[in-house]
Amino acid sequence: DAGVTQSPTHLIKTRGQHVTLRCSPISGHKSVSWYQQVLGQGPQFIFQYYEKEERGRGNFPDRFSARQFPNYSSELNVNALLLGDSALYLCASGSYQETQYFGPGTRLLVL
Amino acid sequence: AQTVTQSQPEMSVQEAETVTLSCTYDTSESDYYLFWYKQPPSRQMILVIRQEAYKQQNATENRFSVNFQKAAKSFSLKISDSQLGDAAMYFCASFSGTYKYIFGTGTRLKVLA
């Protein structure tokens, strides 16, 4: 079975721009979570979506938004990019007892 | 508020030896899960072991086991017979009914040949 996939793998943007990151969960998984991982730190929880509804939200500004589609894939959108948004963005799909299965991540660099 | 604390930024272990990584957590929830994840350099995060808070028995997965002390809010990971492939960042994480995942800052494990 295919694992969690994310696109693109790398992205370079400039301050003030908007970015959309995409994630496809493992087949059969209905929840998708998004994390931001700054270099040298642990992942910070941004959102969890389950059955197309937001189920959990971390402490991130409203510039961050997400949605989940009928096929359970998901998009993370970030508006008005700041230099501090440079990070590895991880997507994870959820299964038994909330175990997270992570994708390879999208590395975003904001210049 | 939920918190997860890993007080060891880096640990080293000789190949074939045993090492224990520490983690403490805090939550007001009665029902929660605890996890250890492994992130090898430039590779995907993978689950090492999972513990349900309502279970008294410590979880075990092959060479990996936990020491779950609920009253002390401690959740340490023991790696037995360490192998070179165990070298990675290890993250302790919690999940509770507020649907938030909290990760610690990680412990970098070095395995010496």
Description:
- The complex is a heterodimer of chains A (111) and B (113).
- In chain A, strands 2, 4, 5, 6, 9, 10 and 11 form a seven-stranded mixed beta sheet that branches. In chain A, strands 1-3-8-7 form a four-stranded antiparallel beta sheet, with no helix packed on it.
- Chain A is an all-beta fold and 111 residues long.
- The model of chain A has no long low-confidence stretch (mean pLDDT 93).
- Chain A contains no helices and eleven strands.
- Chain B is 0% helix and 54% strand.
- In chain B, β10 and β11 form a beta hairpin.
- Chain B starts with a strand and ends with a strand.
- The interface between A and B is medium-sized, with 24 and 21 residues.
Number of helices of chain A: 0
Report how far apart the termini of chain B are: 41 Å
**Helix content range of chain B:** under 10%
Mean pLDDT rating of chain A: 93
Q: CA-to-CA gap between the ends of chain A?
A: 37 Å
The tally of beta strands of chain B, per DSSP, is 12
Rg of chain B to the nearest angstrom?
14 Å
Number of beta-strand segments of chain A: 11
Q: Which two chains touch over the largest interface?
A: A-B, 24 and 21 residues
Rg of chain A is 13 Å
Biggest beta-sheet profile of chain B: 6 strands, mixed
Which residue ranges of chain B are poorly predicted, with pLDDT under 50 across at least 5 consecutive positions?
none
Shape of chain A: globular
Order of helices and strands of chain B: EEEEEEEEEEEE
Q: Strand-residue fraction of chain B?
A: over 45%
Return residue spans of chain A where pLDDT drops below 50 for at least 5 consecutive residues.
none
Largest sheet, strands/sense/barrel of chain A: 7 strands, mixed
